[in-house]
Design goal:
The complex is a heterodimer of chains A (104) and B (209). Chain A is mainly alpha-helical and 104 residues long. Helix content of chain A is 84%, strand content 0%. With 209 residues, chain B is mostly helical. Chain B contains 6 helices and 2 strands. The longest helix of chain B has 33 residues. Classes of the chains: A mainly alpha (104), B mainly alpha (209). The interface between A and B is large, with 54 and 59 residues.
Chain lengths: 104, 209
């Protein structure tokens, strides 16, 4: 085992339990938000914010990216996020425009 | 324990471009697959969200009880199976073959529970006349995007369960290394991660009040 990997595994179970607990907690908050019926835009913002945090927790700890080389993260994720943002920017305003163009 | 080759790769530094990420090619390959698959799922999720916003009478067929409760339990299954997966990987690196197989089985069980509940929900929708091509709400695109998105995800979970079964068998019989277990773990966590976006976007945003 290399030094960084064994360091990450030492006492790892407790860390993983914490991450799991946080993920469940965030899920509970999301379900509660759905239950209390918020305005759609606010709801969508909060849900997506929480989902991004959950995804980051999974990638960083469960998928171990936090304990890999920084170069791996820099190679993989900034460009992926940029691609997703580009799709968002070019497509989303149009969906709202379509709705407003409707005669009814 | 990692074999001599993996050991050499992990210890190498980026001089001469041999191993810039200090990891085996399998793991890097899985990461690259995950990035491309995340764009696939982004496209499906964005298509769903686009149509949902652009369609004024988009149906919200998920009552809080039981649909949302079921989806929450499914989320719990996937999150917990991720926890058993990291336990499997940790045990694989320590060389505990028996325990690794045990945790891998637990992970597969979580995945099977997820698939079971999901299929139950699908059949419930079929029973109500909601199919991929038609539904009683008069918005056929709902079925197209809902079944397309959740079906693609369920396909990933099903493949994941088979993949983990092969890895568990291979690791138990000492054919595969701990790196193989770790790589399968990356795949499994990614499938879990995708559900973290499908669950709020498809279910929580479409609660029937």
């Amino acid at each position: 085992m290399s030094a960084h990997a064994s360091e990450a595994h030492a006492g790892g179970s407790r860390l993983y339990l914490w991450v799991w607990g946080w993920l469940l907690g965030f899920t509970a908050v999301e379900v509660y938000l759905a239950y209390i019926h918020l305005a759609p835009t606010l709801m969508l913002t909060l849900l997506m914010g929480l989902s991004v945090v959950k995804a980051a927790l999974i990638i960083a700890y469960f998928m171990h990216l936090r304990f890999e080389r920084l170069s791996l993260f820099l190679t993989l994720w900034p460009i992926t996020v940029l691609c997703i943002c580009l799709i968002l920017i070019f497509f989303f305003p149009d969906s709202v425009r379509l709705r407003e163009l409707r005669p009814f | 324990m990692a074999d001599a080759h993996t050991e050499a790769v992990l210890e190498s530094r980026w001089s001469g471009g041999v191993a810039p990420y200090a990891m085996g090619s399998k793991k890097l390959g899985m990461w690259l697959f995950i990035v491309s698959d995340s764009l696939t799922f982004s496209a499906l999720l964005l298509a769903y969200s686009y149509l949902r916003l652009a369609t004024p009478n988009w149906p919200t067929p998920f009552p809080f009880s039981p649909a949302i409760i079921y989806a929450t339990v499914m989320t719990f299954f996937l999150l917990s199976s991720s926890l058993t997966m990291v336990m499997a990987v940790a045990n694989a690196h320590r060389g505990n073959h028996r325990q690794t197989v045990f945790w891998l089985m637990g992970t597969m069980l979580g995945g099977l529970g997820f698939i079971g509940l999901h299929l139950r929900e699908w059949f419930h929708l079929f029973h109500e006349g909601v199919y991929p091509w038609t539904n009683p709400y008069g918005v056929p695109l709902f079925g197209g995007t809902f079944f397309g998105l959740t079906g693609m995800h369920m396909l990933h979970v099903s493949i994941g369960v088979i993949y983990l079964g092969i890895i568990a068998f291979g690791f138990g019989t000492r054919k595969f290394s701990s790196e193989d277990v770790e790589v399968s773990g990356l795949y499994w966590h990614f499938v879990d991660l995708v559900w973290m976006f499908i669950f709020p976007l498809v279910y929580l945003m479409s609660v029937k009040f």
